[in-house]
Amino acid sequence: MKKHLTLSQRIHNAEGAQAAEYLHSSHSFLHGATHCWEEFGPLWSHSDDVSWGHGYGRWRGYKGVTWHMVSQYNWRGMSPYHEMYEKVPEIIWLKDFRSLSEVAMHTLGTDIVEVADDGKTARASFVTPGVVYSALQPNMKYKGGALWERYGSDFIYEDGEWKYLHEQVCPDIFGSFDVINAGADLYKNLVNPPPPRPEIPPEQLDDIVRDRRLTDPGPLHNNYNPVQTIQDTCPWPEPYVTMDNNNTYTKKL
Amino acid sequence: MANNTRFTTEELVGRFEDRRDVKNLMGKYVVSILLKREPTMFETFWSKKDDICLGVNEGYYQGAAAIKDYYKTIDKYTVATRDLMVKLFPKETAGKTPEQLYGIGPFEDRSINNAVIEIAADGKTARGMWSVIGNVTDVTVRGPVSHWVCGTIAADLIRENDKWKIWHLLYLEDVKSPTGHNWSEGKNPYPELPEFAPLAAISLPQPNVKKVVRERYSVNRPFTKLPRIPEPYDTFAETFSYGI
Amino acid sequence: MTTKIKKTYYTEDERILRVWDIEDIKDLMGRRGFYVASDMRREELNDLWVNSPKYRKTASLGSNWGYYVGMDNISNYYVVKHIADRQKVLDAYCAAHPGVENRRENLGYGCMSFHPVGTPLVVLSGDGYTAKGNWYVAGQDSTWQPGGPAECRWINDRLAVDFVKENGQWKIWHLVISNDLQIVAGEDLNNKPTIPVPGTDPIENEFLAGNPTIKMQTHNPVMNWSDGYPFFLTPYFHFEDEISYGPEGHPNIDKYQEK
Which range of residues forms the domain containing residue C51? Predict the structure, then answer.
């Protein structure tokens, strides 16, 4: 129990702990539907301190985060409309096309949540067993994979509301559902490595990084394989007094 | 579904903090398995009470000695797995210390949700029940194989020095079956691999209280209800236990 | 939407009680998950759903294919029909296994249900009398079938729920189990046809066989989530029909009623 805080502080922090779950669940559903602006508009801080990271790198600052997670993502979401209109004309009556590309449903479990003693921030880690799928493809079959990830998220109390501040996504396992066996398949690849992918020339690599506008190029986290060392990229939050570089999922540079 | 109006505002705040701490504790427990922290899990998570027990499908590890031995054996197995993987893949593991390589091979990813938590009115104990869905990769004589896991965790917890500790823990699996296959077939399609034969030398200790706590699902399993769900209670003496 | 909420001020006592209301609702749905796994459907309706006549009349259980409205209709489908379906499975099981007695206690032999709720998103009304929640279920059903392995199916559902407080306890009032995805264990989702052969969806067949009170397509999973139902939650002050997860809140209910 946090008896070193006043009752008012403890009530505020209880609401903050609940808000951390609420905001992350909101993200899960809105992201699932590719409703990007509905998430990044009202639910995120708009400050330069925000960040969104994945295994391949991180964007810092609201401009960079929304460039990837809103502008690019929204476009990707709607792009199947033109391809699929011929095959499934009823899609013209849909309420919102953005979900046409896929449902990326990252369910949440194993929640571990802490709120800072100063009541200004909160932190949470999750395990997310997910399925990313789409029913609408040109070949008129589903496409889909199981995707298991871990999350580390920071939240901030701003202008009387809790908002998302940092998100670090750590993908661990991905493959066709329900045929993949990550352990056995990856072991086979270690014993008999598949032909290597063509190397991307360094000058093109820079283009890719620049085009992605990553501020922190990755890798920040590797997928599981049987010789991958243990990764604690998003360590669970411990009780803390105030957010600093020891208590954050995005250290200040 | 306790009657919240019987508690003062301060008590309600404390009970929420306890609830959050209980959820955090169980989350840390399953993530610790993922991070292969068995060497420290007993000290970190378990109560000092004499009647602690860890229940699994095949019985109970009753008492500190049995539970410590359980974690110690897993640690020994983790070391043996590491050494075997280093021998099989010297190029991929070159340049790293044994400590850095500890834990390579398996990947025990478990998500716990569907929680029901009850904090005793007297604040001294708590109980919780969770569903578990897992993608658990073990390294055995068949090599690395991933399994779908569906199960239940039920726990009694006790407050010691203002921290919650596990008193009795039930970890029960209904399904543990290779991913990419029908779990009711009851067979493992992955053959034993000779390069992994050395792992047969180490096996988990049997529970010191042998009892079929729960059969895993099969086409011939009678319908089997879950353990009793936690109910609101005042003191531990008046409620049921997940221990023996 | 007419129930947009302005920032509402509560005392500290009220704030912590509201925090606990949301936690109690999360526990309620956790209990439901365990009741489902233990096949305690009758107990679920008794313990976790509304009891007062006013709410029993308007309670509903919905899916992609319509709604059962009123607790009697819900019970007839969710309990009575389910027991009958399980009995058919048991009849076949006992015919194949003469050593197993064909009695009520053996219903569910060779079967399993696992529908745990995760991703909790709960909104308490400004006035504190109702609440709404969304959860996601990554679950499975396993059903014995003669001559081979069980039919084991991964099932992904989105749950959309309205709650109301009765005698100080939260109860389920409207529940929509919106199926997104189902895949037979061990089969490749990438081979599943987008448009299913009519009459081959076992979840649809099971729901419609009970003769729902309102038969209408509420959600088409072929469109992913683009049809907008169940709709996402937003904060609200006072419950109104237009935000209900009962049939009255479905955007197409007027078209259904015109028919």
Answer: 12-258
